[in-house]
Amino acid sequence: MRSCTGCLRLIKLKTNNPDSLFMKRIVLYLILCISLQAAPVKGQESITLAACYEWAHQNYPLIRQYELIDKTEQYNLSNAGKGWLPQFAVQAKATYQSDVTKLPFDLERFSAIMPELSIPVLNRDQYQIVGELSQAVWDGGAIRASREGVRAGAAVDRKQLESDLYALNDRVNQLYFGCLLQDELLRQNTLLQRELQVMLDRLRAMMSNGMANLSDCEKMEAELLHTRQRETELKANRAAYGRMLGLLVNRPVGDSVRLIVPSMPGNPLSTGINRPELEVLDMKSALLGIQHKQITAGLMPRIGVFVQGGYGRPGLNMLENSFEPFYVAGLRISWNMGALYTLKNDRRKIEANRRLIDVQRETFLFNTRLQAIQQHAEVRKMAELLETDDEIVRLRTSIKKATEAKLANGVISVTDLIREINAEDQAKQTVATHRMQQLMSVYHYMYTTNNNP
User: Is-contact 326 310, C-beta < 8 A?
Assistant: First the structure.
């Protein structure tokens, strides 16, 4: 009904005007304004800011990394778990030796004494193929620590991806509120055009009565054309914002789509910071703890059972100079002490990485708090400006009404009236801009802290 205020005012001013044609135009225009205000828009799609957040996340190509992270985690867990499966290895060798095993006495004299006993002489070329089947019994917790490390690493990747996707919310805010601001300015521009058109019709009626001249009508008509040019600029800006937002959310956001203005939070804004980046750093710290377990597990002995089967010359009997099959079964204990050389440095590296994460957390919190303080001050500033904006609009409207009355009495020129109309329009645009900037500042603050009041 605000758009019809000018119509009612003009009817009051022209009540005593004998020009009935002018009165009919005003009444018809008033009826049209009321009908347009009351008639609902059918078939118009409406979207919300929350829906844009969700669509932007779903449409962003990075979202496909979730599936890749899950698959990589499954593959790595499967590989780590296969450490408990029996292991099979095959080894073959052919060698030539400079010497072979011999009995420590003269074979010729021994053969002369005991001719019935034959002692073979081993060949210097020897051949062997061995297959071994082994089963780990205890690995010191290495496999368990490895699986924990895989899960923790995948959790870090997921949270990092979530953090990257969270940054989309800020881009959505910029474009969404940019569209809303252009829509509001377009509404103000439409109201201004209607008012200028009414004033132009009034001046034409006054000119027919000799109360105005052609230059007055031309001044008003030029101002109306200038306002229409401004409408073209605003529509171009709205279309650009809509195209960018539509590309981001993979939805058409044209003139036929109505963007719902988000509600202003009623509760005070929270000062806590719950950004996903902090959760990423927490998970990285947990991953370092698991890496510490892996280092400890690497120091533990390994216990397993094995079975070897082979074929070669010689076999297990070194005095049998022929190809023979053989097998060996037993329990194996291995303990690699080489990890002790690097134990201190490995643990120091983990501690250094932990301190690095602490520094990154402090730096992020410091910068985020500074940004939050600036945005909170912006919210307070907009609230204080809005307290006086409405009064400025009221005063500008009152001045314009007085100017219209003076113009009707021939006291001032049309230029003075145009100046006051523009001043009132500028005050209304300022209110619309400040109101949208306040809402945008609140949602930017909510994005910075990731807190909903």
Answer: yes
